[in-house]
Amino acid sequence: MNAGWPVELTEGDVVLRPIRVRDQRAWQDANRRNRDWLRRWEATVPPAPAGRVGASRPSYRQMVRYLRGEAAAGRMLPFAVLYRGRLVGQLTVGGITWGSMCSANVGYWVDEEVAGRGIMPTAVALAVDHCFRTLGLHRLEVCIRPENGPSRRVVEKLGFREEGMRPRYLHIDGDWRDHLVYALTAEEVPEGMLRRWRGVRSSRRGYN
Predict the structure, then answer these.
(1) DSSP secondary structure string, the chain?
(2) Residue ranges of the domains in the chain?
């Protein structure tokens, strides 16, 4: 079982909590309104080999059941992102690996309507601190398409290192796409990621 789950993490108006079946209407509404905004960055299922039936996209309920099962097994942390009480995105810590690696990857999306308000950097900072300080993970990785400037700015603001390119790494928007790898280890944020992010935001307000 996952000792760090379920959990609710909060910083100001931003809340991370487990995604729920009853979030269906709010999640689908946000996803539908952001179709054009998200399509270029969302994973897709590659075509099946000749003679085989391809996999279909899961329903919302199937997705949540899968995520909850993975969370219970300690392999994933599937969060809904709330801003001022409204569901505005999703953040998933996946591929949790223990043993000699102690690592995971982070993926996220946010409603275009509230993008640019610091919501996702705050959400990622909350997740990083939980993974390093509560779960005891050592390394977190975020893989982002080079063309996805807003997503890259999230991790760059937080001080993730760019490690290089993974050619044709994931099937996105109908084809195999290159991804940039950003990473962070626990030793690189001894003060805590949320504390670092508060400092960044404070310095920007002072500059302005």
Answers:
(1) --TT-S--EEETTEEEEE--GGGHHHHHHHHHHTHHHHHTTSB-PPPPPTTSPPPPPPPHHHHHHHHHHHHHTTS-EEEEEEETTEEEEEEEEEEEE-TTT-EEEEEEEE-GGGTTSSHHHHHHHHHHHIIIIII---EEEEEE-TT-HHHHHHHHHHTPEEEEEEEEEEEETTEEEEEEEEEEEGGG-TT-HHHHHHHHHHHHHHH-
(2) 9-46+56-207
- Note the CATH architecture for domain 9-46+56-207: 3-Layer(aba) Sandwich (3.40)
Q: Residue 15 burial (CB < 10 Å; 0-12/13-18/19+)? A: buried
Report strand pairing: 139-144 vs 175-185.
Answer: antiparallel
Please give the distance of CA 139 from its chain centroid, rounded to a whole number: 15
pLDDT tens-place string over residues 109-138: 999 999 999 999 999 999 999 999 999 999
Task: Give tens-digit pLDDT for 29-88.
Answer: 999 999 888 888 888 888 867 656 556 778 999 999 999 999 999 999 999 999 999 999
Which residues on neighbouring strands pair with residue 79, listed in sequence order?
Answer: 18, 91
Q: Taking the complete model, does pTM exceed 0.70, yes or no?
A: yes
